[in-house]
Each structure stands twice: as structure tokens, then as C-alpha cells.
Amino acid sequence: MIGKILGVFFGMLFGGPLGALFGLFLGHQFDKARRLNQAGFHRTGFGGANQHQRQEEFLNAAYAVMGHVAKAKGQVTKEEIQLATIMMDRMNLDSEQKRAAQEAFREGKSADFPLDRVLEKVRISSGGRHDLLQFFLELQISAAFADGSVHPSERDVLHRIAQGLGFSAQQLEQRLRMQEAAFRFQQGGGFGGGQYQGEQHSAGGWQQANSASQLSDAYDVLGISEEADAKAVKRAYRKLMNEHHPDKLMAKGLPPEMMNVAKEKSQEIQNAYDLIKKVKGFK
Questions:
Q1: pTM, whole model, 2 decimals?
Q2: Where are the transmembrane segments (predicted)?
């Protein structure tokens, strides 16, 4: 309303009746824009934050939700605390950012943590960009796998997180399978260490079984079946690389501190693809 009043006043002052009409129109546009901005402020809770502020919110929300996932089964394990610390180091957080991340992680562990409200803010601050939200979800899945397996309570929380970010239960379960395979793939297969190798297999037999296991995990990392042909493998690879390309994620608003994590994820996809190409013999 204030825009219309001022528009009419100054329009009449400088242009008479015609100026008043023009001023009324401009004032109406001003009031309309003002209402939209105010609505955006109250809806997001970020107060028109700039890009840097939104990235800080995204980063802190990631650690808060990570703490909530870690607490889901009742007690936070040393592996989960270690993972959070490792991720802080991988992100090269400065001392102030580390304190904020640690505080966010502790807040996430509280019984009254407002998970749904935080996830809504994440969706808004990320502009609803699918790739950023998927990256956020995968961070939480990684946190759940910190100790090597996902507890049923953690899985329930992950389903709430996926739903809050706009992903279906089926999409979450697929990402869980892919992350589980990635966890084994990074460990060099699913057959344990050297002691198991010496007691249970000859060197050649273990190596053959281990390679078969790694190949199976490589297919799961790409989210495809072992029956997939070369065309399907390449299509899955390109889709995942497009979704996880660090530069593209940065352009869409990923905090620069998360660049190393995005690079490691894309390298994981690349390694799985390279293994499949090598074994299957296609270019």
C-alpha cells in the first residue's frame, strides 16, 4: 500500500493527474514485489541470504542431519564420529567452520532435533536442484555406512530424509545398494583380509573370487545389472558422472568445501566403470 501512496503523491507533484495515474501503477508494482520478497523471507527462514550464506546453511545442515542419522540407533559409534572428523578434514574446513560443523553435529543428536524443518530449508536453499539434493542424501547414506552396515533405525531415518528431500523409497533403496557396493568396492572386494585369504583359499582361487566380487560391486556402483550390455553401461556411467561432476555441482551451488567429496565420488564411479570396461573388453 505504501508504494501506491508514494507513487500517487510524487506523480501528482511532478506530473499532475496523468502523473498520479502513472505513479499509482509504479507503486502497485513496487508493493507487489515487496510482498513477494517478504513471503520468500518468511517461507525460507534464510532472509534473502546470498550464495555464500546459503552454502554455509547447506554445509551445517549436512552435519546436523549426519548427527541425527548417527544417533538413530541409540548410541553414536566412534566410527561415525571419526567419519564426521574425516569429512571435515577432507573439506578443509577452517577452525570456525569446524566449530560450526561440530556444533551442528551435536544439535542433530538431540531428541528434539527438527529434522523435517531442516530438510525443508535444505530444499529451499538448494533451489530444489535434484543433483544437490541427491548429493546431500548420499552424504547421509555415507554416514549410515560409517561402521560398515546400516542399522534398521538408521534406515528408517534415511527414508524420512529421502522423503523430506523429495526422493521416493525406491530411489533411496537403490542408492543404499549402490553405496553398500561402493563401500565394498573401496575395500577391494567382499572377502576380507589376508588371514581369511590364507586360511580359506589358495592365492589364485581367492584372487579369482575377489575379482568376481569386485566386478559385481562395480555394476552395483553404477546401479545396473551384470547383464547390461556396453551401451547400457556407458549410459549409466555418463548419467552418474553428469550428476556428480564437481564443476557442475559447484555451478549449482554446492559449497566449495564439499568439492573434494564430490571429486572422490566421481572417481569412485570412474574406477567402477574402468573395471567393467577392462573385464568386458569394450572401449
A1: 0.68
A2: 6-26
